[in-house]
Write a structure and sequence with these properties.
about 160 residues, mainly alpha, two-stranded antiparallel ribbon, 2 strands
């Protein structure tokens, strides 16, 4: 076991193996998050689900989730052109439908909520594209991917180490 010193001089134990396995250490919480994620996706177009997850993962700098969701999107038939344009979708709007653009804008606002909240115009654009129930599911999906990004980043998950291809 390595020991590092904290600013107050007390030693802090850091396990050799690295960070904890969240799913094993908090299985009830992990299962609840999986259930929330599954409920959020219900009724949403799988392509839209991946676009939202990819954009939030870009913004959160989560390589683990970005690798996972770009792979899932490819398996679902998403084009390489669109995958490359998600990060710059505002400059490449012609790659995305109005619904997708509204979802991407909402994803950015909710993910970066501390930078200025969710502007009324962004919310209104999303509300014009999605019915109330569908909008609630889009929001829930944004909440879940942001949570998954934080789990992966906090526990130092390694991109490509999940066995997916």
């Amino acid at each position: 076991m390595n020991t590092s010193s904290t600013p107050d001089g007390h030693g802090a134990a850091v396990a050799e193996k690295g960070r904890l396995d969240f799913g094993k250490s908090a299985p009830k919480v992990f299962r609840a998050l999986i259930g929330f994620d599954a409920a959020a996706r219900e009724g949403l177009d799988p392509a839209l689900v991946e676009l939202i997850q990819i954009r939030a993962s870009h913004l959160n700098h989560c390589a683990y989730c970005l690798h996972m969701h770009t792979g899932d999107a490819r398996k679902a038939g998403e084009s390489e052109d669109r995958l490359h344009m998600i990060a710059v979708w505002r400059e490449a709007r012609h790659f995305f439908t109005e619904r997708e653009q509204a979802a991407l804008a909402l994803t950015e606002a909710v993910t970066l909520v501390a930078d200025g909240g969710v502007p009324d115009e962004v919310y209104a654009q999303a509300a014009a594209q999605f019915g109330e129930e569908e909008l609630a599911h889009v929001l829930a999906l944004i909440f879940t991917i942001n949570t998954w990004n934080r789990v992966a980043l906090s526990t130092a998950k390694v991109a490509g180490a999940d066995g997916r291809r």
